[in-house]
Design a protein that fits this description.
Elements (H helix, E strand, L loop, with lengths): L2 H20 L1
């Protein structure tokens, strides 16, 4: 798996978690 892809996935889920916490 591409390390950059994994990094992007972590950022994506982190952002989703932040939005969920905000709501």
């Amino acid at each position: 798996m591409d390390p950059r892809s994994k990094e992007r996935s972590q950022l994506y889920y982190q952002t989703k978690a932040t939005e969920a916490a905000r709501n």
